[in-house]
Specification:
single chain; about 300 residues; alpha/beta; 2 domains; six-stranded mixed sheet; 10 helices; 13 strands; binds adenosine-5'-diphosphate; binds magnesium ion
Amino acid sequence: MNAIEITGLCKQFTGKRMTKVDALKGLDLTIAAGEIFGFLGPNGAGKSTTIKLVMGLLRPTSGTAKIMGMDVGQAESRRNVGYLPENPAFYDYLSAEEYVAFVGSQFRMEKALLARRSEEVLTRLDLWEARKRPMRGYSKGMVQRVGLAQALIHDPDVYILDEPMSGLDPIGRALVKEIILDLKKRGKCVFFSTHITDDVEKVCDRVGIIANGVLKSVHAVDELLQHGIEGYYVQVANCPDDLICEYAKQGNNSMPVDQIFVSRQQYQECMEKLFAVGSSVVFIEPKRKNLEAFFLDVVANNKL
Ligand SMILES: Nc1ncnc2c1ncn2[C@@H]1O[C@H](COP(=O)(O)OP(=O)(O)O)[C@@H](O)[C@H]1O
Ligand SMILES: [Mg+2]
């Protein structure tokens, strides 16, 4: 069964002086169970709108969304979902421990299980020491981590996270990526939004790029990185100068002389020439167009 199914989802907001904003224009998207999906887009693209629609917090203008086959209009569809809202803000007179326990009780977790899970998630998110302090004294990063703790507490199968890495320092970001990868190992589905390509490159199976309320592309991350190979850096030994010059001229001249750059098209021919003159190849490294360059192509230049 698919974890999330979105069909023809549209949302129009009525802004000030009755101006209309089409925040989401007919989104079709299916996320498989066990999949890690990155929803990538610039600010204002429609990511949070999509997530709020899927969480049943906004009503669509048209279209439908289902979680585990259940229409999101039914509260029951959210029973098996962990949700992190964007910019989470909690009752700040509560402590992390109290808040996480409150969320667990809403999912009718049994007391002993709740106590055990609470210790697990608060420790994992590095909140154990601070667990009894009121959240009003927490830093932004700590509040964000409480947001993740409460999404994890009932160990659901589907996670819908709106910018889970936002407001975190590098250690916090690495921790969140680790947690997402752990969830993947355990067969869970994670659908998360971000505007940072690096977050997606490291953890996602697939990435969808949204801009101006329109899904511009959906790709497997592996495939994207594979297609993004522009050429190869090749380190050679015992290579005649004229052959090095032939390729170095076409590549980056500032490279050391025993390293050449060959484009994808030149690669085969170059290898044959090197073989013919008895040179040996020491090292080959692909030069990739990274996800950021792809993202900029799609969003800024509106290619594809
Ligand atoms: N409640 C609202 N009323 C009017 N416009 C809104 C509302 N919420 C979002 N928008 C508009 O919808 C668009 C998409 O916003 P959002 O989904 O929050 O983007 P993202 O999360 O990708 O940054 C933006 O143009 C935003 O200004
Ligand atoms: Mg947002």
